[in-house]
Amino acid sequence: MNTLYYGDNLEILRKYIRDESVDLIYLDPPFNSQRAYNVIFQDKTGKSPTAQIQAFEDTWYWTEETQAAFDEIMTGKYRSELKEMMNAFRQFMGTTNLMAYLTMMAIRLVEMHRVLKMTGSLYLHCDPTASHYLKILLDQVFGLENFRNEIVWKRTTSSSSKAIAVRFGSDHDLVFFYSKSRRHQFNQQYVPFDEEYVKRRFTGVDERGRYKDAQLKTYSEGTMEQLKKEDRLIVTRGGKYRYKMYLDEVKGVPLDDVWTDVFPVNAVAKERLGYPTQKPVALLERIIQASSNDGDVVLDPFCGCGTAIAAAEKLGRKWLGIDITHLAISLIKKRIKDHFPDAKFEVVGEPKSVEDAEELFKQSAFQFESWAVSLVGGQPYKSTGGGDTGMDGFLYFKDFEGKFHRIVIEVKGGAYQPKDIRALARVLEREEAPLGLLIALKSPTKGMLTEAAALGKWTMPVSGKKYRRLQVVTIQELFDGKKPELPDTSETLKKAKRVLREQDKNHNLF
Question: Does domain 354-479 have CATH number 3.40.1350.10?
Fold first, then answer.
């Protein structure tokens, strides 16, 4: 079954993914750019600047975990070539951030090689920051003989003036294509002829369309009769036979390893979800179509906002996605449901009980808050300064005059008191938010409910409907299906447009 996993992809790969069970792996791992990447959420009320929450920090450090991974590579049952290379890297890099990055990538790539079928392939997406080291690493994990391509994707049409002032502009990413063996699945892809070529070569036009005269390499009496019947036979002045090759019969130009025709997800792109490093669906569709067939299994171990997963679902592939943040998991769940309302998939690693939620809170208060906000379809929030602003997320709704309002969400994983209710009330005043929602692991006391009730109700303009200004809901209540009484908040997160699967396009849907 299609499955989305929350957790460290190394642990997920080892625990859940069987040997030689995957046909295609696409990974777009952090590039070691030494930057923090944020998901951008628009404040729909227009009162505040654009909100951001950190999706991931693209900086790696040498830690005890890194040392353990390096030791495992050096002492475990790994290719001797990999051990020698990693040892050489360590000797001249030391325990730098780059060495930490390569170590954590190496041990994961070994697991990805394990789960690939012998006919499978891997595409690793990166930029020039560490691409030269990653290629050496891939050579040792997959074998030099299984390198297929270094694909250059022109991801932008312009570079910043600052960059150009000191060097040539940087406008491309790299995608390394490796197979597990020479028996790998590959379907040749084509790009359309350019207009000048079509005008120059396809000079003939009839009622069927544009054509060029093509050479008849071999032909029989039956072939000639069929061409005559279809009015496709051409007799030259010299008495030789040629035939009409129509433009719509020609696949185009075989795709090479420089891709300039797939455009990035820019600020105004319809598919833009606000996730940093989001890749265009067309890029993933091309990779999936080239190296897998209908029903094959596609794995993305760093799935981010789920572009590879969405493309796999559209193209009729089975899929597995892994990410280490609940922010990404919640975005992907919503994206798939928006694109394909009837899609069936399982989520592994999300809390399924209050006990699970308590364990997540112990592991990471931040991940717990992000997950809890997603239970009500909210937009998570963290202040850029890192301080506690009394807000962990937002919901948005429109009144009958078309004006957006905010609902402030606060999440409590530990103990809370009546004073916390009063504090949230002050946040509502500060943010000019008419409604507030407190999501808690523990049940509220009678005093807390009294404090919340004392805030009274807010009246929706025009309709006159009243809503309690502050509501408290527990995780258990949300598990049980209880929902807070709120206006329609469906416009909180950007809705991805519905998409038809390829097999659906081939059937009469009307």
Answer: yes
